[in-house]
Design a protein that fits this description.
CATH superfamily of the largest domain: Naphthalene 1,2-dioxygenase Alpha Subunit, Chain A, domain 1
Strand content: 25-35%
CATH topology of the largest domain: Naphthalene 1,2-dioxygenase Alpha Subunit, Chain A, domain 1
Order of helices and strands: EEEEEEEEEHHEEHHHEEEEEEHHH
Shape: globular
Number of helices: 8
Distance between the termini: 25 Å
Amino acid sequence: MQVPYQISGDAKPFDLLGIPLIILRDKKNKIRVFHNVCSHRGYKILQKNCKIKNVIRCPYHSWSYDTEGKLVATPHLGGMNKHNSVKFDKSKSNLKEVRSSVWLDMIFINISKNEISFDKYIKPLSDRWEQFWPTKDRKSIVHSNDYGYFNLNAKCNWKFAIENYCESYHLPWVHPGLNSYSKIDDHYHIQGLPNRFAGQGTTVYNPRLKGKDKFPCFSNWPKKKENIAEYVALFPNVMLGLHKDHFYSYWLEPIDHKYTKEHMEIYYVGEKAANSKKFKSLRKQNYKLWKGVQSEDVGIIEGMQEGRNSPAYNGGNFSPVMDNPTHHFHKWVATNVV
């Protein structure tokens, strides 16, 4: 998910597979994620986006928490006008925080008991991209306010979207327009460490946008790699697209086992490219390009949802050459989900 708002006290409720969460900026401007449930009677505290001035107050009995999750007020806990009790230790009833990290303007949330840190988890991909997208360049990405977001609905399990994104095998038939200038044989496989990421890259990236202007590129992107672009599925549910002149994150919000919301966030190099009038036409064209490509995939992954209901489907067969990244994802599923 994209980092919400930019001011301390901003808060957003968010359900993750039926688990209610709160994402907020505390008074020190740090992003935090908490379980959205009052420690008193289990009421879902936050119902809509809001600005927290001082405390998060539960509407049920007015128990209140500060932006670091600490329980700070318990009205009439010990009887009328007695707001504390020696029999009750407030420090044991704070909001339960969820492990989270911010990377490339995305909030990564870990509700599992997996002990691996996010820094360790992301390091193989981050190191891979260091060769043409140094860490110092990543700070220059700016989200587009006009043509920087779209969402699509897919009547399928979220895993089918990842399966499809990992490989370029389907390009000639599903994306004939894209394949006309970024052909299947111009692509290569990407397979990260087990349980991390997989995808594909192209060696002929060349934006075909109309107009005399061109988007500015990342300042340290090497000239000899200017036509490289990579499309990586970061397991479990984030798809990334890296180019010399823009970056996108395409994250999946599973609603249930056969319905998924897809969210696209597009970033450019610097504020001018992302939001000035000069580049508006280019942004609009790029937006339409990616929305068109992703929309073409929706029908395919919905067809997989329908087809795999067949009792005749036995798990399928992989090409020993073309399906390697998708098989990599299947290994992750077999290890972590099944």
